[in-house]
Amino acid sequence: MPQKFKVVVTRQLIDEAQKLLEDVSDLDVVQWPSEDQPAERSWLLDNAQGASGLLVMLSDKVDQELLDAAGNDLKVIASFSVGTDHVDTAVLRKRNIRLGYTPTALTDAVADLTIMLTLMAQRRGGEAIGKVIKGEWPKMPWSPLLMTGPQIGGSTVGFLGFGRIGQATLKRFIPFGIKRARYLTSKPGQPAKEDHFGLLKEGKIPIEPAQNWEQLARESDVVIIGCALTPDTKHLVGKDFLAKMKKTAVLVNIARGPVVDTDALVAALDKEAIFGAGLDVIENEPNIPADHPILKQPRCVLVPHIGSATIETREQMATESVKNLLAGLKGEAMVNEVQL
Ligand code: DGY
C-alpha cells in the first residue's frame, strides 16, 4: 500500500486478527480500547474523521451521519457480522463505499444454537432448570406427565428465511427424524434460490416452499426465524402470525429481535396459544430489565445473542473482518462482500 490509511476499529480483536491488523505497516489504526463494551457513538464520530476504512460491530450504526463524519477518503466498511441491518446500504451505494461482512464464518455455530433453542423450547429446558435451581425438585417427583413437551421427531419445521443458516439447521434436524420442512423467502411459493448443502436435491424428506406466511404458521410444529430484518420483516411474527400457529408449536428466533413483536409473543405465551419460544435475540436488546414480562414466561428461553459465540467462529469472524477491511483499502477481492 503506497499511502498510509487511517482505519477505525470499534473493538479490541481476538489475537490472530489483532496481529493481522498490527502487522500492516501502512495503517494508522485507531481502536476502541474495550473488548466487551461497544464504542461510544461520540468517540466513533470524532475518530472517523479522515478514515479510509471502518471495522464495525453490529452495535455500531453506519449511517449518513457517520459517513459524513468520516469524509471523502472512506472506501470500506468491514462489518463483524452476517447481518447488515445496522448499515444504511443505500448511502454506501451512493458514495461507492464497499461493504464486507462474514456470512459464511458463523453458519455452523448459529445452526447449532438453533437446535439447542428448539429443544430447550420443546422440552421446557429453561423452566426445568429454573425449578431445580429454585429447590423445587423435591415437590415434583418423577411422574408420567411431569414436564412433558412435544417431540422433535415427526415434526414439520418451518423456516422464515431459508439461507445458509436455515439450511444448515435443517441439515441437523433431518437425523432427528423430522417429517417435513417448509420455507418462506421473499419469493413465496418459489423454490429456494440456493441449495447450500445439497439437501433439496437429496430428497430425504419433503422440503417445500410455503405459499405464504399463513401456511407456514399453520403447518409448522417448529417455526425458525432466520430472515434478515427489513421493513417487510419487522413484526412479521405478530398477533396474527402467532394466532395461526399450533398450540403445540414453538417459535425460535436466531435472526433479529424486531422480526417478532415481543408484546404479541408475551400475550401468546400467557394464553398458551403456542407451546414455547427459544430466543437468541429480542427487540431492544441488550436493554432487557429483570422485570421485563418476557422473563416471567416459564416457556420462553432467552439467551443474550450468542448464536455465533463459539471461540472458533468468533476468531474466524474477526480475521475475515480484518481481511475484508484490508482488501477494501487495496481494491482487492474480499472474503465476502455485500453486492450493493
Ligand atoms: C451476526 O453476525 O449478524 C449475528 O447476529 C452475530 O451472532
Automatic annotation (TrEMBL):
Domain D-isomer specific 2-hydroxyacid dehydrogenase NAD-binding: 115-307
PROSITE patterns in the record: D_2_HYDROXYACID_DH_3 (PS00671)
Keywords assigned: Oxidoreductase
Domain D-isomer specific 2-hydroxyacid dehydrogenase catalytic: 7-338
InterPro entries, A to Z: D-isomer_2-hydroxyacid_DH, D-isomer_2_OHA_DH_cat_dom, D-isomer_DH_CS, D-isomer_DH_NAD-bd, NAD(P)-bd_dom_sf
Entry keyword Nucleus: no
One of the record's GO molecular function terms: glyoxylate reductase (NADPH) activity
Superkingdom of the source species: Eukaryota
GO cellular component: cytosol
The family this protein is said to belong to: Belongs to the D-isomer specific 2-hydroxyacid dehydrogenase family.
The name this protein goes by in its record: Glyoxylate reductase
Record organism: Lophiotrema nucula
